[in-house]
TrEMBL record:
HAMAP family with a match to the protein in the record: MTA_SAH_deamin
Enzyme Commission code: 3.5.4.28, 3.5.4.31
Cofactor(s) this protein requires: Zn(2+)
Organism: Natrarchaeobius chitinivorans
EC class: hydrolase
Zinc listed as a keyword: yes
Gene coding for it: mtaD
Cofactor remark: Binds 1 zinc ion per subunit.
All copies of domain Amidohydrolase-related, residue ranges: 51-398
Protein name: 5-methylthioadenosine/S-adenosylhomocysteine deaminase
Reactions that this protein is recorded to catalyse: S-adenosyl-L-homocysteine + H2O + H(+) = S-inosyl-L-homocysteine + NH4(+); S-methyl-5'-thioadenosine + H2O + H(+) = S-methyl-5'-thioinosine + NH4(+)
Gene3D superfamilies for the chain: Metal-dependent hydrolases, Urease, subunit C, domain 1
PANTHER family named in the record: AMIDOHYDROLASE-RELATED DOMAIN-CONTAINING PROTEIN, AMINOHYDROLASE SSNA-RELATED
SUPFAM superfamilies: Composite domain of metallo-dependent hydrolases, Metallo-dependent hydrolases
Annotated function: Catalyzes the deamination of 5-methylthioadenosine and S-adenosyl-L-homocysteine into 5-methylthioinosine and S-inosyl-L-homocysteine, respectively. Is also able to deaminate adenosine.
Length: 430
């Protein structure tokens, strides 16, 4: 057995307490062996003056959209997608998607994220980036059937099923999969009726955007006479394996449906603020027992992939939404960004305890904005930044040591992304 020890630090435990301890990892099994004093490993990471936390889990992303960061801003969702993003995405090559995915995964590793869920197209390119970088991901091909003829629409839905079957368990189990209709308004009812049961039979979870904007809720209520998540339930899309992105405009009946079904909600506060989509009732969902996690959405609507930023945004926006400063407190957002997202995605990570996956981040505390240190959970929620992450470990493997990413060549990832973006811009201007 090969072991890795993280020594001299403080460790964030599942009950949100922090203890001075070392962490010993079985690198072959990719699991935590022990948390306690004076542990030695074959390899050591310095944890002094640092906090060891579970690796952050980004519950909803379009990682390759990192290539479109700053391409179009300051518009609401519909206009942003239809006027700017979808025309740009129509021009993306497989190489662009690989370059965008590597750029995004690099940013994730540098900010302590060890797992993410991703909806996009050309999934093999994204899977290749995940495999190479050493992170964990639940991947899926996003289906859009509106404005497509039947043949194209079916092909999209078939691809989503095939990709999910092919990639579930890939990269030594670090990749899992889901069936991913884009949303309840962009995928026709006939396709949901046919393909959702097929995904269910194959045991594949379902992930989709839901109740993101009021413009998306109104037509469903008008045409079908039910709220969107009641429609989703009718279509068999609210299961304990499933997770939806956003859940901004959910009413009490939908919160109850989510809680009873055990369907996860991935809250994306930065994207919701930037697109002015609204404020999700996060405190209410938590009180009702809904499994809530956090996600960045794509870097084109955020505009970064830092889960520490997302945690802070979730706390701030959650208080504003509830008009209550005690809502969505520090301890809650730290849980959302770790175990909440992991549970929603059906991953075992998100907790530091014996036998758990060795997915973790080591946060350097030696910084002016982390001084003094009354409460490290408060610092994680409100003050720590992506650049404070010193080491990142996933599945027992060191992905970043002393701020140097070991699995991706940072300079070439950046230059490939810059080149791909410049070429894309030229193509879009022609
Ligand atoms: C069909 S692949 C996924 C699809 O989703 C688009 N997208 C990015 N951000 C959002 C968002 O906040 N709501 C809905 N759709 C979004 C992305 O551009 C891809 O086309
Ligand atoms: Zn999204």
């Amino acid at each position: 057995m090969t072991t890795l020890a993280i020594t001299g630090g403080r460790v964030l435990l599942p009950d949100a307490t922090i203890t001075r301890a070392d962490v010993l990892i079985d690198q072959d099994a990719g699991e935590i062996l022990q948390i306690g004093p004076d542990l030695d490993g074959d390899e050591t990471l310095d944890g002094s003056d640092a906090l060891v936390t579970p690796g952050f889990v980004n519950g909803h992303c379009h990682v390759a959209m990192s290539l479109l960061r700053g391409y179009a801003d300051d518009k609401p969702l519909e206009n942003w997608l239809r006027e700017d993003i979808w025309p740009a995405e129509a021009q993306l090559t497989d190489e662009d998607i690989r370059a965008g995915a590597e750029l995004g995964v690099l940013e994730m590793i540098k900010s302590g994220t060890t797992a993410f869920a991703d909806m996009y197209f050309e999934v093999p390119e994204i899977a290749a980036a995940v495999e190479e970088a050493g992170v964990r991901a639940r991947l899926g091909h996003g289906i859009v059937t509106v404005a497509k003829d039947e043949e194209e629409a079916r092909e999209d839905a078939e691809t989503s099923l095939e990709i999910a079957r092919e990639y579930d368990g890939a990269a030594d189990g670090r990749i899992s999969a889901a069936f991913m209709p884009h949303s309840l308004t962009t995928v026709g009812e006939e396709y949901l009726a046919e393909y959702v049961p097929r995904a269910r039979e194959a045991g594949i979870p379902i992930h989709y955007h839901a109740n993101e904007t009021s413009e998306e809720v109104t037509p469903i209520v008008e045409e079908r006479g039910v709220r969107p998540l009641a429609y989703a339930a009718e279509k068999g899309m609210l299961d304990s394996q499933d997770f939806v992105a956003h859940g901004v405009h959910v009413d009490e009946s939908e919160i109850q449906l989510l809680a009873e079904a055990g369907t996860g909600v991935i809250h994306c506060p930065a994207s919701n603020m930037k697109l002015a989509s609204g404020m999700a009732p996060v405190q209410r969902m938590l009180e009702a027992g809904v499994t809530v996690g956090l996600g960045t959405d794509g870097a084109a609507s955020n505009n970064d992939l830092s889960m520490l930023d997302e945690a802070r945004d979730a706390a701030m926006l959650g208080k504003l939404a509830a008009e209550d400063a005690s809502a969505v407190p520090a301890e809650s957002v730290v849980e959302l960004v770790t175990r909440g997202s992991a549970d929603a995605l059906g991953l075992e990570s998100g907790r530091l305890e014996q036998g758990a996956p060795a997915d973790l981040a080591v946060i350097d505390l030696d910084a002016p904005h982390l001084t003094p240190r009354y409460d490290l959970v408060s610092h994680l929620a409100y003050a720590a930044a992506a650049s404070d992450v010193r080491h990142t470990v996933c599945d027992g493997r060191v992905l970043m040591r002393d701020r140097e990413v070991l699995t991706l060549e940072e300079a070439s990832v950046l230059s490939r992304a810059r080149e791909a973006a410049a070429d894309l811009r030229t193509r879009l201007e022609d």
